[in-house]
Design goal:
Blueprint: H1 2-6, H2 10-29, H3 34-53, H4 57-73, H5 78-94, H6 106-139, H7 155-162, H8 176-183, H9 194-201, H10 204-217, H11 226-229, H12 233-265, E1 270-271, E2 296-297, H13 306-311, H14 315-320, H15 324-333, H16 343-358, H17 362-368, H18 371-384, H19 391-418, H20 421-430, H21 434-450, H22 453-473
């Protein structure tokens, strides 16, 4: 155990401590009344923020106050204004050293990232509240909205939501409505806790052990050395596979632990009949039935589906199961407002915004903007090859597709972890830009077999239509 702790960086130990402490603390919060719960969650979250971010806590506070002013002064344009405000401040936050200000801590960066998502979501929720309220006044009837705010949040409510201790540095993202529902739970002690919490934690020790063990044998720093570039092609290609494995194990352990912290507190607990979505919460109206025993789930705060991340077939579906609450945010607040109509280009726009949200390092953009190319490649091959195969042929196609999907994510992960453009390009060059070349070849083959651009556009539209249908029905991707 001591060797394991010594292998972790000081920042990782702090994250681990916050995660570990949030789980038992969550069980205590189930015994608090709504006002006490709100105040205690704010006080604890603010204490964690100040202790880890120090003076840099002011960045998050300025973001919150700015959003509150926007929401109070112009709810109609609040979504666009809050998006612009939060993202511009995120740029300033990352360039503070250029203005002679001290570099924010990694913890301040984590808080700022999640706060940006929360503030944009809050502005959209407030706009929806006012729109539904106007409809009620004009029709003299309560609008049949699925979920929505019962009143406009005050500054205290916004601060409480922003600094709620649950997932303050690790996520998952959750809407203000989810937070408000958590405060108003009628019988929080009666909700499921131990079993789903233990279920989420049971594989965390394995993920953590695999992360530490494999990372010690295959350190990322070795990729940047001349010695690495002198190794043979197959070793260099294999290295990206183990790097992405280490990357996955790290986030599997962290996100499962973060979900357990939400579960112990009861955050995001809704009846199964609410058909909740990660990040968004309930998608249908529901009411408790006293005559039957309700079944509950924590889908609202689920941030990772480890099995489907590894074993889903398609690149586009791999994104669906990874960082799921953030994917919901991107799908609802960025994707619909894309300046493009094509599914692939809209996906590219969404990935660009996602890269910007993650940071300014060139590796993020090189990685995220490779995803649309991979989506276009798999769409082309599905439309031109898979549809012409029989059941056995399609099964073989899917296994090959899965293998290439995993290699594509291995390949893109290198940009995400190496960060610098020169390091990313040097690595990709060392394996001859193999995944880029395979993707381009698949697109060309698809166009040749389908006979031109018309079919490509048709496939694009069909892909978007399928994604929209699955989003509305809650159907799983595979």
């Amino acid at each position: 155990m001591q060797e394991t702790l010594r292998a972790m960086s000081p920042d990782e130990l702090v994250y681990l401590g916050v995660l570990a402490a949030s789980i038992p603390v969550g069980f205590l919060f189930r015994y608090l009344s709504p006002p006490v719960k709100q105040g205690a969650a704010l006080l604890l979250g603010l204490s964690i923020t100040i202790a880890t971010c120090n003076i840099h806590t002011l960045h998050s506070l300025v973001t919150v106050i700015g959003t509150w002013i926007i929401v109070k002064s112009s709810w109609r344009y609040a979504p666009a204004l809050s998006l612009g405000w939060s993202f511009l401040y995120l740029l300033f936050f990352r360039l503070v050293t250029s203005f002679g200000l001290p570099q924010p801590t990694p913890f301040a960066n984590a808080v700022q990232l999640l706060l940006t998502l929360k503030m944009v979501s809050l502005a959209n929720e407030v706009q929806s509240f006012h729109i539904e309220k106007k409809k009620e006044v004009s029709s003299f009837a309560k609008s049949p909205v699925t979920v929505g705010l019962s009143q406009e949040p005050s500054l205290y409510d916004i601060l409480s939501y922003s600094y709620c201790y649950v997932g303050i540095m690790t996520g998952p993202f959750f809407r203000f409505q989810t937070y408000a529902d958590w405060l108003k739970q009628p019988s929080p002690q009666a909700l499921p806790c131990w079993e789903p919490c233990l279920q989420r934690l049971k594989l965390v020790p394995l993920y953590a052990a695999l992360f530490l063990a494999v990372n010690s044998v295959f350190p990322l720093a070795y990729v940047r050395t001349e010695e690495f570039l002198d190794r043979n092609f197959f070793f260099r290609f294999f290295y990206m596979i183990v790097v992405f494995f280490v990357f996955r194990m790290r986030f599997y352990a962290a996100w499962c632990g973060a979900e357990a912290g939400c579960i112990s507190a009861g955050l995001g607990c809704y009846p199964e009949k609410a058909l909740s979505k990660p990040g968004g919460g309930p998608t249908v109206t529901y009411s408790p039935d006293p005559s039957t025993e309700e079944k509950y789930d924590f889908r609202t705060i689920q941030n990772i589906d480890c099995y489907n991340t590894d074993f889903c077939v398609k690149v586009r579906h791999g994104m669906r199961y990874w960082n799921m609450t953030v994917q919901w945010w991107l799908h609802h607040y960025i994707y619909p407002n894309s300046p493009f109509k094509s599914y692939t280009l809209r996906a590219g726009w969404t990935m660009f915004i996602s890269a910007y949200w993650h940071g300014l390092h060139a590796g993020y953009y090189l990685s995220f903007l490779t995803i649309p190319l991979c989506i276009a490649a798999e769409s082309a091959m599905e439309a031109s090859v898979r549809t012409k195969l029989g059941p056995r042929g399609q099964n073989i196609f899917d296994w090959v597709h899965w293998f290439l999907k995993m290699r594509a994510y291995d390949y893109m992960c290198m940009g995400f972890v190496l960060l610098k453009a020169v390091d990313t390009v040097n690595y990709w060059m060392s394996i001859y830009f193999s995944m880029h070349i395979i993707a381009v070849c698949c697109i060309i083959i698809g166009k040749v077999l389908k006979g031109g651009r018309g079919e490509g556009r048709k496939g694009d539209k069909e892909g978007e239509k399928k994604e929209n249908v699955k989003e509305k029905t809650g159907e799983k991707a595979d």
